[in-house]
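Q: Predict the assembly, please.
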Amino acid sequence: MSFVSLNFVIFVAVAAGAYFLCPAKYRWGILLAASQFFYLLTSPHTYVFLLFTTITTFCGGIFIERQTECYKNFVKEHKEELDRKQKKEWKARYDRKKRRILLAVLLLNLGILAFVKYFKVYLNTLSRLLELESISFEAGILIPLGISFYTFQSLGYLIDIYREQYKADRNPLKFALFVSWFPQIIQGPISRYDQLAEQLYEPHFFQYERVKFGIQLMMWGWFKKLVVADRVAVFVNQVFDRYTEYTGFYAILGVIGYTIQIYGDFSGGMDIARGVSQIFGIDLTLNFKRPYFATNIPEFWRRWHITLGAWCRDYIFYPISLSKFFGKLGKSSRKLLGDRIGKLVPVIFAQLITFFVIGIWHGAEFKYTAYGLYQAVFIIGGILFEPFIIRLTELLRINTKAFSWRLFQISRTFILIVIGRFFSRGTSFTAALWMMKHSFDLNPGIFFNGDIFTLGLTPKDFILLGFCLVFWIIISVIQECGYSVRQLIAQQNAVFRWMIYLAGIFAVMVFGVYGIGYDAGSFIYRGF
Amino acid sequence: MKETVIEILMDVRPDIDLGEGVQLIDDGELESLDIVALVGELNDEFDINISVKHLIPENFNSVDAIVALIESLQE
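A: Predicted assembly structure:
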């Protein structure tokens, strides 16, 4: 069931009706039923994978917690007999048991994720290695809906239990709801248990204001997805899928278009997910914070797909950079490379590994690894050259507080992000490099001789896109200044307010990209 | 101890705002890279072992919280 279908709207309306009519005590049950029903309806053949992850992480959490409790009870019982050293030894013994359980569940789930997601790529690589060029494995296996998202979310929960950050969930049905909450299962956000679970389990009561805000957020998501992203997709697909025919400004327009498309598509999907959740009284974690206003690449990653970045920071970056091995490496590097660089060595390695993981999280093809490493190069470069850049700005007497400097930083970061999109959207790594190289085959004539309109969009489409983008930028600037657009609308008189609502509905209904053969459900991140 | 922590914080992030009510993590004063550098310095200075499980915002949101974390690990 697609987020942008009438069926979905009816589904949400029925689920919300049932939720608010149900006795408060059992309301979480309605959310569970709706989530399981949604998954079964949308991806029935892969339901067993969701079930497997739910069961293994639920049991893993309890087993890990049992070891923690066993150690605490043991220390309590033998309080007077044990000295500090002995306590440490016993703790290490129980920690080893905990680690074994954690590793087993991690490997099982990550193994499944790697198998189903990368199966086709592995087979094709194998066929190339064995020089079976004529054989191409196009079939592959069905990728379970949202597997990258719910696997990361569940494993985050398990690692937190291992770290004793909260108690393990003892109710398997409630835990199943945490894993499968339907608005977020397709493409996130990757929520933390302590931020989401309690919200799902406790009853919420009907609040007109919240329902209204939720619907508005959904409308905004549909606008970004259907009116902007899917319209831009028409020429983006044309350029990237037949890239050898489209060089110069075509390629430049294509990659800028894709930068807009992926933001509209992904953040639009997030707005729908957050809007639906808000109707039920649940606040999902923010996944986007106007990323194209970032002034550098690290800031971009704090604004783009925030929950994946936070997950990688907490469960990959910190454990690596604070590990004993990297601690020792840092100390020996300090002797060799000096204090400043030496200190940075663990951080640099941890960043490289983190962005490598972010790359392969998107897919097994080398282009995704290149995309991750491309980002890492700028982040590491920024860390290493920070003092020189500060010195240079001082020497050149640049006022770093001025708006013009900020504008320069935003533009520079945007250009770097756009270039990186060649990798993530290119049909392959070599295709991405080919497109980059041929972007310099300048052909400004396409803007004057009408060739630009052979990409599938009419002049009217381009004008509409221009208006929509200006509108989107204005909204983003208002939000960036700290205002809530929905609150501002709520303060207006009824007539004006309803004019805005109707204009929004009209825009989505009339200007949304629909048509025969068009699959509105295919959100880009659904494929990840 | 508090003075040493402030010194280390200023060393890690010279432009840090340690004003009253500033939440170092929640307000974005300290980023992940700063945290790693800070943990390394605190471990060396106070001979403690701050591990990943201690890396929660509540432990780093203020100088007092950092001092409390160090004291709990020294016990």
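The radius of gyration of chain B is 11 Å. The mean pLDDT of chain B is 87.
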